[in-house]
Design goal:
globular, 5% helix, mainly beta, 11 strands, 1 helix, 5-stranded antiparallel beta sheet, 6-stranded antiparallel beta sheet
């Protein structure tokens, strides 16, 4: 025997079914400017350990600001054990975001000089856990390399995260390390 399913019952069932579409959006955050969606800025600690590169008169590195995102960058040289140029030890750039992926971009000096190191040694933490490391010995040729992806992670859970870039060796050991932080992208 065939029974018709009442149409109002079908409508009630369908009203409980929700169709959701997720759109992934890439958000670019400059080293100085706030996140265009949330207004959150990258924080730098210790404050005296990071300089706005484009206006810094004491910074030794001099990349071409026109090659940097929004013509800005943050300059930091970590000098573990150096007591004449405080603060010694690692220097952190921290950013809070909600997303499933993050990419960090820096400029890299290609040669050290008598006044600065071009060696880069960065560690990355997400939510307090070590998640990556970037180390680069400069090739020894003049100039800078721009838009270098120094860290990427595309497997994050869809929730709020805290990213920390640590310039210098984990625990503060080792020699000087330079970071020229340009921008990050999260989605």
């Amino acid at each position: 025997m065939f029974t018709l399913f009442p149409i109002h019952s079908l409508i009630n069932i369908l009203s409980f079914i929700s169709i959701t579409k997720a759109i992934i959006v890439n958000v670019t955050v400059d080293d100085i400017l706030p996140d265009p969606l949330t207004g959150v800025r990258i924080t730098y600690l210790p404050e005296t350990g990071w300089k706005e590169g484009q206006t810094c008169t004491t910074c030794k590195a001099a990349p071409d600001g026109r090659q940097m995102y929004a013509n800005t960058w943050h300059d930091s040289t970590s000098s573990p054990g150096n007591t004449t140029e405080p603060p010694s030890g690692p220097r952190n750039a921290t950013f809070t975001f909600s997303g499933t992926a993050i990419y960090v971009f820096c400029a890299l000096a290609l040669a050290s000089t008598s006044t600065f190191t071009a060696y880069s040694n960065m560690s990355f933490y997400i939510d307090g856990e070590t998640v990556g490391h970037f180390e680069r010995v400069p090739p020894g040729v003049p100039g800078y390399e721009y838009n270098v992806p120094v860290y990427s992670n595309t497997a994050l859970s869809p929730e709020q995260h805290v990213l920390v870039l640590e310039n210098g060796h984990i625990g503060g050991g080792g020699g000087p390390s330079m970071t020229l932080l340009d921008y990050l992208i999260y989605s």
